[in-house]
């Protein structure tokens, strides 16, 4: 039984306040820390911040902490921690907001409790977290995902001119997760050397997700550099590339165009850098043909349904088109995407939806609809490795947790290495089945 639930303020990888929740049961004390996004889209569950500008620039979480201690605790104390579904429903009912975004008590408050409860549930059953989540999800094949390493960064987080937010290496041809890590790490270090040679050592500083952000303006040039680094390591037959365009960040509402020069002021943007959705689609086709880009996340603005539909119609068989800001791990958004064929994969982020049960439901729905599922970290993440267990337990086949750099990113990859060891000869690496792991 749950005896106590309490929260405290800690800090995430960007030095912003976040909350840690502790759930106490007869088996001990179980913790979870909540991550935070940088570009939280309007379709995500609500992250409750204090808004008091005198403290942490308004980013304090004391209200969320109070909501855990005063309301959510009362709602779940006495419940059986293995009853994840019942507990998550009690949390949702306690919040009671009618916008579906957990906006009264905060999705961050609710998620912290939900995650810590999962750990308590696993302990009560005496099994690792990934097995507990696997049980909760109806026992799909436990699987080690293809790690999706964001090694080069642009977009609004980076100081360079690149519009695309993330350039991602996916070792789909590796033999095991361990081998995939070796490939990713070798490419990362080769890339670092090449960037130091070409742009100077200062250009090897890393961004929030551990990726490099050298002074490059052209997305094609970034892909060229990455391709060269991969070739130098000799792993070119074993990896494919992905990008997260995060195109909502550079969509220009006024002109209805995409501004590839969006970090400059409007006046300085040369006309050839203002792209129509069709121009962008043509670029994506080039990236796929010339650089083996096989996965593209948020290729258009989150409300540009027509362009999503066109791209999925033309390229959906060949490449994965992921909705992150586009779907917000939101069931209604996913249902309409399936119905209208506007993308073919979901980026699964726990804090976009707010409870472990709803994340499992989102995964089930995506899988049953033939959608790919990439579990994802957030830009503001923590040493908590929860999503590694979530990804392996659900067998989604793909995990994005940044570059193999910065310990909050490695915490997830390292936990997966442990899980692979724990499974021993039963370990299954998603490999070529990263898009449709249920076929394995
Ligand atoms: P975010 O970035 O967590 O800051 O939203 C990750 C992503 O866009 O995939
Ligand atoms: Zn994204």
Automatic annotation (TrEMBL):
All copies of domain Enolase N-terminal, residue ranges: 2-133
Pathway participation: Carbohydrate degradation; glycolysis; pyruvate from D-glyceraldehyde 3-phosphate: step 4/5
Active site: 209, 349
GO BP terms in the entry: glycolytic process
Residues binding Mg(2+), per UniProt: 244, 297, 324
SUPFAM superfamilies: Enolase C-terminal domain-like, Enolase N-terminal domain-like
Reported cofactor(s): Mg(2+)
Assigned GO CC terms: phosphopyruvate hydratase complex
NCBIfam families reported in the protein's UniProt record: eno (TIGR01060)
Protein's UniProt name: phosphopyruvate hydratase
Lineage, broadest ranks: Eukaryota, Rhodophyta, Florideophyceae, Rhodymeniophycidae, Gracilariales
